[in-house]
Amino acid sequence: MRRSLQPNKQNKQKLHGLMLVPLMLLCVEPGYARCSRPIQVPVSAYSYTVIVKANKFSGILPDVLSAIEAKSNCKFVYTLVPKNRQEILFETGQSDLLVTAVRTVRRDKFGIFFPFVQLRATLISMEGQFPPMHSVKDIIARSEMKLVVVRGYDYGPAYLAIVDEMNKLGRVLVEPDPTSVAKLIKSNPKYVTIMAPTIFSGIIQSEPLLEDLVGKVRFEKLEELNWTDSGVYFSKITLSTSDRAYLNAQFEKYAKTDNIWKSYLNYYPPEVIKIGIRPREVGH
May I ask the CATH architecture of the domain 33-119+228-279? Predict the structure, then answer.
């Protein structure tokens, strides 16, 4: 007798079950994914970006990460370090994220960049101290002017070229943080700096000893300095491919809301926003 080729009831059930497996896998919600371990995030406290009081972290960046943390299975662990230390830890594979970072060719070697906003570094000086400045040539022409910069800050090749040129002229001072820069400018109006206006504005609004500078400083665009992406780097060294992909997906969800932009609008005056920061370009 020839054996029937028709599957019996039991085999039908097995076959049906096997067919459902890939379908079930496709239907798994992204929320079931997770970061494989706590994500290490060294931060530098300055302005309204990161505020540290009694070992508690707040400000724009921690608010963003807390919102992402609440919607995902990731835990962000903060460590307070100087700005230049952030860079060293990231490059040597001792941290997972490099935060509040402008995109540069050097940083691209060590991490995958995720953009949150675009910013523009500007020339910052005491109001009325110098005639209007439009380019690096104007800065060089004022021989009495000295440029104060923050160690570890990098706004791209044009910024580094300006610092290098002024350094060759013996007219560069390097400080460990933006607060020290603001104090120097307050004590000596011949000093100027180049940095993101949001950073400088936030410092003079939040530091009691610098509050009298509010309304007395000038932010000027320089021809050489254009808009550049600012955001977060995911480490190529310490994070697995799956962790990077999951983090990128979670950050993208948050970035598609207007919460980040609202945070900047809440913290900074309109004139600072207008000259120094704007939403990231469509298409990221």
Answer: 3-Layer(aba) Sandwich (3.40)
